[in-house]
Write a structure and sequence with these properties.
heterodimer, A: alpha/beta, Rossmann fold, 7-stranded mixed sheet, B: alpha/beta, TIM Barrel, 33% helix
């Protein structure tokens, strides 16, 4: 019988990888999730605790997928603490995916916002010229640098720039400033970003001001993930169903992007 | 012949008979406008309380294999004051404000908040099956229903609808109590109390354990209730429960509903479902030669 993607499927965590002291990657076998498109997410149930939306991470092993989680709130900390051999429930994949252009591409990721960027890198063509910007606050919060390098091994033209706000590793400064500087020198055919909303807002502004195609993957509090509860609305859009990926032209008309999100009661709050 | 989708639910006049059901997507005015432009004749808000409610932790929704959803969102809502401020600029969209409360005063307080808003009607949620002290616990007590409806009736001239569901008492007594106290219309039905257990991890899935079943599995039950209410009482009815196609909508009209509400079908077919159902109703009307919805209402009851 074909799987009902809205119905939770129970999977067992096979491997846990420590990325940083606060970030872990949990690997599991699931063919459908392994074939998710870049930018798609799953609703992840930690039995007895909570359920939360997670971007679907790649795995280097066949028919496996993963979640890369930073411990933050109750649900993400519970997921962070799941051990190999323990079970979680997954439903999805949900949401749209990045519209991948050809040529010179710029990927800007902050923190676990790098997850959809890694999957996107498995979809780019060898002749595309790829620049990946990895932003973090400080050195010990950087992860996926080596993974990015190995994913781009076969690309003749590529560069990876790591920046830290405090200059403890790579370039000193905000990743958004690096992105702005690059866009002022190079014409990109596509810019893709995922990470903290203020970061994405600035990247989208940099691209929009030059009429460069840009897409951002928005994060919102989600309850249902299927367009029923309305928790994730951003202006007229529902992040779960219309997104989570929106292009720069669309976002420039959205009054909430970069400024507001909603709390659990649905009240608008400033970033 | 002219064919019109206009419908009247007592004093409530709508251009189209398909509404958004309460609890679904009802958080922002921007989304309400989008739904209205997509074919919804009116939107019913999330059930509002006097203060903001966060609702239950996730998981709050469960997809039933073969169709239907069980939800225990827990009536999360921004509270009546915040919500009233948000919809105050609205001029175009017919908004039906849904409210929950435990005592008549809760509803009285909330109605005052909407003094400067354009409100098409109030819908009293007397039937949410998964939150204590409100919803079904109120609806199961016809004496309390009388007090609430009378109080609301005396607080506003705007039409008032009671949304009923299947609790532990006979819901027809709740309908009767609401009618005796001057209700304008009845919405039937709410979700049906249900639960989901995962065999693999051996525990209930929803954080609240119990939730409300919606979608196609409850459609025949909702249809039966609309037929029963329209057979026993002379009151305008809004049909709600598992409606996902124009055929479903027509069946509810024939059972006695003057309008219908859509919820779960949005999860399956997304927002185009409003337009699709409107289109199907109109084609049926042309084929059967009905110029107005009201000509079909209750036809299935003829002997």
């Amino acid at each position: 019988m074909q799987r009902d993607h809205n119905h939770p499927t129970i999977v067992t965590i096979e491997k846990v990888i420590d990325e940083t002291p606060t970030v872990r990657t949990l690997v599991f076998s699931d063919k459908i999730m392994s074939e998710a498109l870049p930018g798609q997410f799953a609703m992840v149930w930690i039995p007895g605790v909570n359920e939360l939306p997670m971007s679907i991470m790649i795995s280097d092993e066949p028919e496996r997928a993963a979640f890369t989680v930073r411990k933050h709130g109750l649900a993400s900390t519970a997921l962070f603490n799941v051990k190999a051999g323990e079970q979680i429930g997954i439903r999805g994949p949900y949401g749209n995916s990045f519209d991948l252009k050809e040529g010179k591409l710029l990927l800007v990721g902050g923190g676990t916002g790098l997850v959809p960027m890694m999957r996107l890198l498995t979809f780019v063509r060898p002749r595309d010229d790829i620049t990946v910007l990895i932003g973090a606050k400080t050195k010990n919060e950087i992860f996926f640098e080596n993974l990015t390098r190995s994913l781009l091994e076969e690309h003749h033209h590529h560069s990876i720039v790591v920046s830290t706000d405090d200059g403890s590793y790579g370039e000193k400064g905000f990743v958004t400033d690096v992105a702005e500087r690059l866009m002022s020198k190079i014409h990109f055919d596509g810019v893709y970003t995922c990470g903290p909303e203020i970061m994405m807002y600035k990247v989208v502004q940099s691209a929009n001001s030059r009429h460069v195609f840009v897409e951002a993957s928005l994060e919102r509090m989600m309850k249902c993930g299927v367009g029923l509860c309305g928790s994730c609305c951003v202006g007229t859009d529902l992040a779960c169903r219309d997104g989570t990926i929106f292009d720069g032209v669309h976002l420039s008309k959205n009054k909430e992007f970069g400024y507001f999100h909603r709390n659990k009661a649905g009240i608008l709050e400033h970033y | 012949m002219e064919y019109s989708l206009e419908t009247s639910i007592g004093r409530i006049q709508l251009d189209r008979p398909v509404m958004l059901a309460s609890g679904i997507l009802g958080i922002s005015l921007d989304v309400f406008k989008r739904l209205y432009l997509s074919g919804a004749g009116a939107v019913v808000t999330k059930s509002l309380s006097t203060e903001p409610w966060e609702g239950y932790p996730n998981p709050t929704i469960f997809s039933v294999k073969g169709g239907g959803w069980i939800n225990a969102v827990g009536l999360s809502n921004p509270g009546a004051p915040d919500f009233a401020r948000m919809i105050e600029p609205n001029k175009d969209v017919p908004i039906i404000v849904s409210m929950v409360g435990s005592i008549p005063e809760d509803f009285e307080i909330m109605i005052k908040q909407f003094e400067y808003c354009k409100v098409t009607a109030y819908e009293l949620n007397l039937s949410c099956p998964h939150v204590a002290k409100v919803g079904l616990e109120v609806g199961d007590d016809p004496e309390l229903v009388k007090k609430i409806v009378s109080t609301v009736r005396n607080s506003t001239n705007v039409p008032v609808i009671a949304k009923v569901g299947l609790g532990t008492s006979n819901y027809l007594n709740t309908v009767g109590a609401a009618i005796d106290s001057g209700i304008d219309a009845i919405t039937a039905i709410n979700t049906v109390r249900a639960m989901a257990i995962d065999a693999e991890t051996q525990r209930p899935i929803l954080s609240n354990r119990y939730g409300g079943l919606s979608g196609t599995p409850i459609k025949p039950i909702a249809l039966r209730c609309v037929y029963e209410i329209s057979s026993k009482y002379d009151v305008p009815i809004i049909g709600c429960g598992g409606i996902s196609s124009w055929e479903d909508a027509i069946e509810f009209f024939l059972a006695g509903a003057s309008a219908i509400q859509i919820g779960s079908a949005i999860g399956d077919n997304w927002i185009s479902v409003f337009h699709e159902i409107n289109k199907g109703i109109l084609q049926y009307m042309k084929r059967k030669n009905y110029s107005h919805i009201k000509e079909m209402v209750g036809l299935a009851k003829r002997s």
